[in-house]
Write a structure and sequence with these properties.
Keywords: Cell inner membrane, Cell membrane, Membrane, Methylation, Transmembrane, Transmembrane helix. There is one protein chain. By secondary structure, the chain is α+β, with helices and mostly antiparallel strands. It has four helices and eight strands, in the order H-H-H-E-E-H-E-E-E-E-E-E. It is about 40% helix and about 20% strand.
């Protein structure tokens, strides 16, 4: 019983924090907040990573749709965004995966409010190196100037860059296979 009383007394004396310890913790938390807060509230990094993944997915979707439906899917890549269609004039749009695009304000403005497979580049980011091309029924990429069906494609490997967040992300479409990475 004596040992239990000693432990209780010892615990009561050591249970609190000193004023120095409390002030030190507040200072460290303040420094961490000052460094982390600007990074946390700057969305460009998150937007760039998200859009790069979204662009890759949309290009893969175009290729898979062309293979599944046995007809060309045209891809229009501009500095404003990406649009998929079944015709070279981009009138007959490909339905977006899940029936709708991201519906962000930029996408709604770029895609004229439609729910077709179309995505806009987020504000503050720049997409460069884009061209208009199509995937044929076998999934191979061709330039829109190539006459279908043709055995020879003038499409070479396409490298698009997404920048504006302090880093550069590259999206590549292989010229021979159409593989997107």
């Amino acid at each position: 019983m004596d040992r239990v009383r000693q432990l209780r007394r010892h615990w009561r004396r050591g249970a609190g924090f000193t004023l120095v310890e409390l002030i030190l913790v507040i200072v460290v938390v303040g420094i961490m907040a000052g460094v982390a807060a600007p990074r946390f509230f700057d969305r460009k990094g998150f937007d760039a990573a998200s859009y790069a993944a979204q662009l890759k997915t949309l290009l893969r979707y175009a290729q898979k749709t062309a293979i599944a439906q046995g007809r060309p899917v045209y891809v229009k890549v501009t500095s404003g965004g990406v649009t998929l269609a079944f015709d070279v004039l981009y009138v007959l749009g490909v339905t977006a995966p899940g029936g709708q695009n991201s519906a962000t304000a930029a996408t709604l403005a770029f895609c004229s409010g439609s729910t077709r497979a179309c995505e806009a580049v987020p504000a503050g980011l720049t997409l460069s190196g884009g061209i208009n091309f199509y995937f044929d029924a076998t999934g191979k990429p061709f330039m829109t100037t190539d006459v279908s069906p043709t055995l020879t494609s003038t499409f070479s490997t396409l490298n698009m860059t997404l920048s504006g967040d302090g880093s550069t992300r590259t999206i590549t479409v292989n010229g021979e296979t159409g593989y997107v990475r």
